[in-house]
Amino acid sequence: MHSFFSKYTSQSQSHPPSAPPLQDPQRPCSSQPHYGQAHHGYGSSSYGNYSFPQGTHPDVIRSFQMVDRDRSGYIDEIELQQALSSGYQRFSLRTIRLLMFLYKNPSSPSGIGPHEFAALWSCLGQWRAIFERFDRDRSGKIDSMELRDALYSLGYAIPPSVLQVLISKYDNKNGWRVELDFDSFVECGMIVKGLTEKFKEKDRNYSGSATLTYDAFMSMILPFLVS
Question: Are 53 and 44 within 8 A, CB to CB?
């Protein structure tokens, strides 16, 4: 099976981004939380038998605690939707389920814990900055070319054929130009990000190609189709 990305980076893409480069570009955020990573300005916060990473902003902690009413230290998809509404917006359940799949701790199937939530919150902050950077008319939406360049800036060089497949998901067939709001941008971007990470697990030499069994292929793809 061949990768639909150019060895996962935007360096091989020939087109120029539609916006000037960031002065301090951030690397694409990982769905794996960085345990114990220190940040200046805030201290760590214990939460029952669980704790947030060192430096987690109090607003992030407060958003998590507000919805974790049973004090289990984990939140489900509905609670995650509510928690993110306090800092970003009310994401669709389709996007929330995709975020749950990508950020849920594999060893803790109960849901998303403090570390995962802090990592997700940080990632959405980076993606919000990218979205606003390419939403040059401040309409709250980006078109297919802006999506291409936004993903390019995150490190994903997507060929036109794949971009068309992604965009078609949001085409309501009314003849208007397809545009994505932030919710759809996150969903679309996380699909690209998640599939890339899954493929890289199989392509250990980073050659841009890998051999997969049918079962492995279905296990890789289906979670992104049914979320």
Answer: yes
Measured distance CA(25)–CA(71) in Å, rounded: 37
Above pLDDT 90, what percent of the chain? Answer: 42
CA angle 133, 139, 141 (to 5 degrees): 70
Dihedral (CA of 73, 84, 81, 31) sign: negative
Question: Of 40, 76, 74, 69, whose CA–CA distance to 56 is shortest?
Answer: 40
Listed as ranges, residues in the chain with pLDDT below 70 are 1-50, 109, 174-175, 227
Q: For residue 179, which phi and psi values (nearest 5 degrees)?
A: -135, 150
Alpha helices in the chain (DSSP H): 58-67, 77-85, 93-103, 114-134, 144-153, 160-168, 182-202, 214-226
**Tokens standing for residue 188:** 């679309």
- Alpha-carbon distance 113 to 159, whole Å? 36
Q: Positive or negative, the Cα torsion across 163, 164, 167, 170?
A: negative
Backbone dihedral region for residue 79 (phi beyond 0: left; psi -120 to 50: alpha; all else: beta): alpha
Round the average pLDDT of the chain to a whole number and report it: 79
Length of the chain: 227
> Residue 140 gets which letter from DSSP?
S
User: Are 27 and 155 contacting, i.e. CB atoms less than 8 angstroms apart?
Assistant: yes
Rounded to two decimals, the pTM is 0.76
